[in-house]
Amino acid sequence: MTDVTADPGPRPASPSADLAGRAALVTGASRGIGFAIAAELLGRGASVTITARKPDELAVAADKLASDAAGGDTSRVLAVPGNAGSDDAREEAVTKTVERFGSLGILVNNTGINPTYGFLMDADLGAVRKTFDTNVVAALGFVQLAYRAWMGEHGGAVVNLASVAGIRSTGVIPAYGASKAALIRLTEELAWQLGPKIRVNAVAPAVVKTKFATALYAEGEDKVSAAYPMKRLGTPEDVAALVGFLVSDAASWITGETVRVDGGILSTGSLGSA
């Protein structure tokens, strides 16, 4: 009998080179989900710019991506350090992507922060404001810049990293959840306004095993994953595979959607500790 709680093991290889000739920008990509998305896009033939706040960590990530995902081809990986909340940093990342690769047809808004937990009546409004600025306003800022630099004339695909916490209340991460709900609505508005040349979708993960989400399964991974029909937490690769599909031509009639990648947790009617 198959042990459904075990690690899913190696996944099927990505479609061969279906993104060849395209350039992507992935934010918050020095580790975790963003890093996995960058690796997925590189594996499918794209050239990729990665951004994150810490230059040293970003440089290490770029080296690893070039070595492992790009087959040693350093010309297809560009690292541009910067804070997604900064207007100047966003502009630099977009500008350098187009200068280096000659295009920008894929944008993945992965950067997200969650500096506040618990009862909203005790929430620091400065932290809430920063959460929305980084998780929502910065994402729109990147889309605006990508539109002006390339996509407005040539088309493209955008994927925003939302969360199941933006679909259903958790009581644990309410400000973060509210910001992701706003990002989901932003995704729908952008899809309507930017079609048909630009497709805009979102993905909504549940708890994924990353450093960012550690607090959500600190009480015990087995205990948390027991609430999921799939009996395990997500991996960055689970999310990356979905993003790779959504930016590809195989998803050419999909826009304005928020696709759940949640191990079935929403089907149970509860988010548990997600």
UniProtKB/TrEMBL annotation:
InterPro entries: NAD(P)-bd_dom_sf, Sc_DH/Rdtase_CS, SDR_fam. Transmembrane segments: none annotated. SUPFAM superfamilies: NAD(P)-binding Rossmann-fold domains (SSF51735). It comes from the Bacteria. PANTHER family: DEHYDROGENASE/REDUCTASE (SDR FAMILY) MEMBER 4, DEHYDROGENASE_REDUCTASE 4. Belongs to the short-chain dehydrogenases/reductases (SDR) family. This is SDR family oxidoreductase. It comes from Pseudonocardia aurantiaca.
